[in-house]
């Protein structure tokens, strides 16, 4: 009986999660008439006109490349800095490490609003608004505490004897970090990088405040389909599908490491 309830609950959960995704993708390949017909049309002739409108939208294409540049650059910086800091914390004695971890956790849960307004003011004073490096720096700053807290968990899984043996052989700390910790924890580092990319790719509030015409990212750009004449549901759902697709593919490629990273991060948090 408990097994049947489990499978029923799992089926309900899958329907709740997957049905909105199906609806967005299905609407993106429907004509406007099929998309709004009542009762809903389940069998229809697919059309690609919504995707043609999106690909002919220069703002969306530019936003796509901005999202790629900003997400990957900020995530790379976050993981690079986070790896070094996490290694330093793991090498500390237990009371000091716990004390520093609490401080990093407090930075992780701080709302972005605290530093967005000062950052906007400073960037405006320095005439750096609408600059890619400002956005990359802000996202890197936001993701570094998350990367540190996650990488600590992966680094703690590495036997301490490896570090001690390397030190006995005369290796310096940076050599141990580069030659021992990075190769052993490479899966966790990649998982952390992917999670940082996912968070940055989907983030809306910071992008809304700090990006401009040349640096606008996809979550902000997609609102351009909300016009005064009404919502362009066809192009909007096509754009939403194109925004989701790269992250879905990326997530599936490293699914195991991402799930492990999320689980360990939740436990640590």
Descriptive account of the structure:
- There is one protein chain.
- This protein has 269 residues and is mostly helical.
- It is built from 14 helices and 2 strands.
- It has a two-stranded antiparallel ribbon.
- The longest helix is centred in the N-terminal third of the chain and has 33 residues, at 58-90.
- The mean pLDDT is 83.
The radius of gyration is 23 Å
DSSP strand tally: 2
Strand order of the largest sheet: 1-2
The outline comes out as globular
- Uncertain spans: none
Alpha carbon gap, first and last residue: 35 Å
Summarize the entry for a quick read.
By secondary structure, the protein is mainly alpha-helical. It contains 14 helices and 2 strands; from the N terminus they run ααααααααααααββαα.
Supply the key terms.
single chain; 269 residues; mainly alpha; two-stranded antiparallel ribbon; 2 strands; 77% helix; 1% strand
Q: How would the blueprint of this fold be written?
A:
Elements: H1 2-28, H2 32-35, H3 49-55, H4 58-90, H5 94-108, H6 113-125, H7 132-156, H8 160-168, H9 173-184, H10 186-202, H11 205-210, H12 218-221, E1 226-227, E2 230-231, H13 233-253, H14 255-268
Antiparallel strand pairs: 1-2
């Amino acid at each position: 009986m408990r097994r049947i309830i489990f499978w029923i609950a799992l089926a309900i959960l899958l329907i709740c999660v997957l049905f909105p995704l199906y609806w967005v993708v299905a609407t993106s390949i429907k004509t406007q008439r099929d998309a709004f017909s009542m009762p809903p049309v389940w069998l229809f002739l697919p059309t690609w006109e919504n995707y043609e409108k999106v690909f002919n939208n220069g703002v969306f294409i530019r936003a796509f490349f901005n999202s790629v540049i900003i997400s990957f650059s900020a995530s790379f910086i976050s993981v690079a800095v986070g790896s070094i800091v996490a290694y330093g914390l793991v090498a500390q004695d237990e009371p000091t490490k716990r004390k520093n971890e609490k401080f990093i956790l407090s930075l992780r849960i701080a709302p972005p609003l605290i530093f967005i307004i000062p950052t906007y003011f400073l960037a405006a004073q320095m005439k750096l608004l609408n600059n890619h490096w400002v956005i990359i720096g802000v996202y890197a700053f936001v993701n570094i505490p998350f990367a540190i807290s996650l990488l600590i968990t992966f680094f703690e899984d590495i036997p301490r004897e490896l570090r001690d043996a390397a030190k006995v052989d005369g290796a310096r700390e940076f050599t141990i970090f580069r030659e021992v910790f990075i190769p052993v924890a490479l899966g966790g580092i990649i998982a952390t990088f992917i999670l940082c990319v996912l968070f940055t790719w989907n983030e809306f509030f910071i992008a809304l405040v700090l990006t401009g015409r040349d640096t606008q990212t996809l979550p902000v750009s997609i609102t351009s389909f909300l016009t005064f004449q009404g919502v362009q549901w066809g192009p909007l759902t096509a754009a939403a599908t194109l925004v989701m697709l790269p992250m879905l593919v990326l997530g599936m490629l490293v699914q195991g490491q991402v799930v492990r990273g999320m689980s360990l991060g939740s436990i640590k948090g």
